[in-house]
Design brief:
66% of the residues lie in helices and 6% in strands. The longest helix has 31 residues.
Length: 448
């Protein structure tokens, strides 16, 4: 049964910490998964969390620390000495260890590396530190099982036993030559079923997908999704095997990117969490809020220019919200589809001309249906043919214009290496409000 953190349980743990009831704490924690204990740490004060973790087995504590959110982990580890951090780093996969060390000040990072008892682990960490965290080199871990193509299956089994002590999950054995160049892989099934005396050269397959260290995180995720891989080897420009990226690291990367895109679409300019400081939350939301208000001021100015027409026909004012909501909805729908297509690299890239043709056809049909609905709805409410015609033409024009803006804006932003997800939120809504009101009152001016 999944663990559920309740207020009563949290108070029980806090009481045990304050009373230094170490036996109760250890007993309770032994029944939980590392991810559950991580959730408890989020609810504890810094000193309480530090005390709880120091009571746990070092391997378990290391897993818990890895599960922490990077910002929380950085604050949390301030309560630990470099020696304590080194003991945890010693037990982690090299990629997780590098993530933790990259969050520390330079002096702490160097002290921890010097204190790591496993010198091979220290060397792995040093190798990975110079890669950007969002590229394949930054996502990979150095721990893997590899075998020379000249060796026998018996030697391979012994090598698996030796290397697997440091490798958490063995998906397959990578085959290399004397220079360390990746040649292929040997599945565990083939190794187990191979006849006595067989050579690795006889059972390995050279049909293997790999990525360069310079590949972006998005490219790695696309490749692993396309070929349904649990792990993908990472090679340098010469093709030498350097490490591997496992599915759990890619899932973490995809989740983080999706989180950033959702915030961008909502008009939040920084990566923030609910429990961040008040000032950070205000700072992340304020820019787009002010931009939206500026757009509203401009929209009010447009309406003010045509206040004479509105005064003569008060019914026109009642339909202003319909104009704004229609333009905003159509723009967000169009931009969301384009952002989704830009994120999907698995298919053949569609040309701008083809995209615009399809958008034109879809918006034309949507516009005609929406215009008809607007004409009939206005006629029922106002019993006035002229106002119904104004609303019908306005809705048709707005649907066409908003569809075009929702399509072209993310494409333009993408060309300038700006996250196109920002086009799907307040930017499109504000822009289409201005264009929609302008078109609406221009049609009002011409027909009434």
């Amino acid at each position: 049964m999944p663990f559920e953190l309740t207020k009563e349980y949290l108070e029980k743990i806090q009481a045990a910490i304050s009373e230094h009831n170490n036996e109760l704490i250890r007993t309770e924690m032994e029944e939980l998964f590392p991810a559950d204990i991580t959730n408890i740490l989020y609810e504890l004060e810094g000193e309480e969390a530090h005390y709880l973790v120091t009571l746990l087995d070092t391997k378990l504590a290391a897993e818990i620390i890895v599960n922490l959110d990077p910002d929380d982990r950085k604050k949390f580890l301030k309560n630990f000495t470099s020696q304590q951090i080194a003991e945890y780093v010693d037990l982690l996969d090299s990629d997780d260890a590098v993530d933790i060390l990259n969050e520390q000040p330079v002096n702490v990072r160097e002290e921890v590396i010097a204190l790591v008892s496993d010198r091979e682990q220290a060397r792995f960490i040093i190798d990975l530190l110079h890669y950007d965290e969002d590229c394949a080199g930054g996502l990979m871990q150095k721990e893997l099982v590899k075998i020379n193509v000249k060796q026998s299956v018996t030697e391979c089994v012994e090598e698996i036993r030796r290397q697997a002590e440091d490798v958490e999950n063995v998906y397959s054995v990578y085959v290399v030559d004397d220079e360390g160049t990746l040649l292929g892989r040997a599945s565990l099934k083939k190794i187990i079923l191979a006849k006595r005396g067989s050579k690795i050269a006889d059972i390995f397959t050279d049909d293997i997908v790999s990525v360069k260290t310079t590949a972006t995180g998005e490219e790695v995720a696309d490749i692993m999704q396309k070929y349904d891989l649990d792990a993908v080897p990472v090679v340098n420009i010469q093709g030498r095997l350097l490490g591997r990226i496992t599915i759990d690291d890619v899932v973490d990367f995809i989740t983080e990117q999706a989180h950033e895109d959702v915030q961008a679409m909502a008009g939040i300019s920084e990566d923030v969490e609910e429990d961040d400081s008040v000032w950070k939350l205000v700072r992340s939301r304020l820019p787009w809020l002010l931009i939206g208000m500026t757009g509203s001021f401009l929209a009010a100015k447009i309406i003010g220019v045509f206040d004479g027409e509105v005064a003569r026909t008060p019914a026109l004012a009642a339909f202003i919200p319909l104009i704004g909501s229609t333009g905003g909805n159509v723009g967000i729908q169009s931009s969301a589809l384009i952002v989704q297509s830009l994120a999907d690299k698995s298919g053949i890239d569609t040309s701008l001309t083809e995209r615009l043709k399809k958008v034109l056809l879809v918006s034309l049909l949507n516009g005609l249906i929406a215009a008809t609905f607007a004409f009939l709805g206005t006629l029922v409410l106002e019993h006035e043919n002229t106002i119904s015609l104004v609303m019908s033409l306005s809705i048709f024009s707005i649907v066409m214009l908003a569809s075009f803006m929702g399509t072209i804006t993310p494409l333009v932003l993408n060309q300038f290496d700006i996250n196109p997800a920002v086009a799907s939120g307040p930017f499109i809504t504000t822009t289409n409000d201005l264009l929609g009101y302008g078109v609406y009152f221009l049609i009002v001016y011409m027909l009434i």
